[in-house]
Amino acid sequence: MSQETDSVAICLRSQEVAFKAKSLARDIAKRPFFSNSWLPLALQGKVQLWVDLFPKSLGPPGPPFNVTPRRAKRFYLRCIVWNAQDVILDDLSITGQKMSDIYVKGWLVGYEENKQKTDVHYRSLGGEGNFNWRFVFPFDYLPAEQVCSVAKKEHFWSLDKTENKVAPQLVLQIWDNDKFSFDDYLGSIQLDLNCMPKPSKTAEKCHLDLLASRERDVSLFEQKTVKGWWPCLTEQEGTKALAGKLEMTLEIINEQEHEERPAGLGRDEPNMNPKLEDPKRPETSFLWFTSPYKTLKYILWRRFKWVFLIFLIVFVLLLFLGIFIYAFPVRSRGFRTSSLLLSSFHFFLPFLSSGLFLSSSSQTCLLLGLWDWSLSGQPATYEPA
Hints:
Layout: H1 2-24, E1 29-34, E2 43-49, E3 73-85, E4 91-92, E5 98-108, E6 116-117, E7 121-124, E8 129-142, E9 147-152, E10 162-166, E11 169-176, E12 184-192, E13 196-197, H2 209-212, E14 217-218, H3 220-223, E15 225-236, E16 239-254, H4 255-260, H5 292-327, E17 329-332, E18 335-338, H6 339-354, H7 360-376
Antiparallel strand pairs: 1-2, 3-8, 3-16, 4-5, 5-6, 5-7, 5-11, 8-9, 9-10, 11-12, 13-14, 15-16, 17-18
Helix pairs in contact: 6-7
């Protein structure tokens, strides 16, 4: 008899638990409020509720549920962009070489007003980029629901903010910087922080298959810190293609850890946790019209140095040939003369005739000597009277 009583009690208890579970899983209903005044169809608001019915056979209901909304906790996502590799070369330099001026832009979904970007790696000739740049994204997170709580006004005329719940997703884009036109979009990657692909340890092992395979997914909220290489995608003729690879460190910390271990944006102070050094970029990475010397040295000279050398040699040869032809002796009226000497004679004649250097008798002797020398090719001597 006691076994039957125990079995009946267990059955009733299981029904009670199932009923409560069903009540908890019930959707919350929304009911509108209308006015009974002169605008009966005017909506006055909405109420969210659910109704539970308890049969008398189960006895008095238990304590009421606490329906106070959960409060989101403040977290910080620190994203350090170290390097980029195999980025699409989208531009042509002034010498005809393929290149790109690379920078990375990032933000959290729902927090688009807090977009951040790195500095520019100019003149990337091989698709590489060096940044050592830190992004810091604050966000409000509900751990029980694994969503971000975003409160913002839907319109600029709205009085109150509307709370929306979105998945914690990080968006990273690679762009090509242009000074005289709009920047060119190269590729992007979107990472769900609760279920993100585990990165590759090296750039050589980073491929598009990393995003297709979901077996190695990790949660950044559980692992706290992840470092490695992720591929960025782009679409070319309707198919997905590799746009580049990013080496990054992703870290999630709470508000207390953020105060204990501060870190600045980019490479600004406080530059710690970790400290970011200036990137070691190649000497060819510069903005060409702001550095004329580097432009001449690393762009024009490296590509056209043989053209410059050949032009210089030809110019020197032509110069000596012109001097030789100009100084070559010719015959004029039966006399052997030199065009160079005649030019010298005509050059000094105004000074000699003006009497600035010599006396009148000395001028006469020098003029006669220069004239005979120019006609006969042999110097002659005249003594003054």
